[in-house]
Amino acid sequence: MATTELERLAALLGSSTACADEPIRTPGSIQPHGFLFVLDEQLRITQLSENVQQWLGVAPEQLIGQTPTAWLDDGPASLVERLKQLAHDEPHPFHVGDLRLLGDRENLRFACTAHRSGNAFILEFEPVERSSHDAAASLYPLVHRFVAKLKHDASVEELCRFACTEFKQITGFGRVMAYRFDVGGNGKVLAETAGPGYDSYLGLCFPASDIPAQARTLYLANRIRVIPTADYHPVGLRAPASGEPLDLSFAGLRSVSPVHLQYMRNMGTQASMSISIVVQGQLWGMISCHDLAPRTVGLQTRTACELLGRILSLQIEARELQALAERQLQLRQLIVRMLSAMADEDSISEGLKAVPDALLGFGGACGAAIVFADQIELIGHTPAAGGVAALVDQLAGRGDRAEVFHSDNLGIDLPGLPGFDDIAGAMALSISELHPHYLIWFRPEVVRTVTWAGQPAKSLDERGVLNPRNSFESWQETSHGTSLPWESVELESARDLRAALLGIVLRKAEELAQLAGELSRSNKELEAFSYSVSHDLRAPLRHIAGYAELLGDFDGSNLSERGLRFLENIGDSARFAGTLVDNLLSFSQMGRAALHLSDVNLEALIEAIRQEMTPDYEGRDIHWKVDTLPIVVADAAFIHLALRNLLSNAIKYTRGREPAVIEVGTLPGEEETILFIRDNGVGFDMEYVGKLFGVFQRLHHVDEFEGTGIGLASVRRIIERHEGCVWAEGAPGQGATFYFSLPRHSYSSVM
Question: In this structure, which topology does domain 594-743 adopt according to CATH?
Answer without folding.
Answer: Heat Shock Protein 90 (3.30.565)
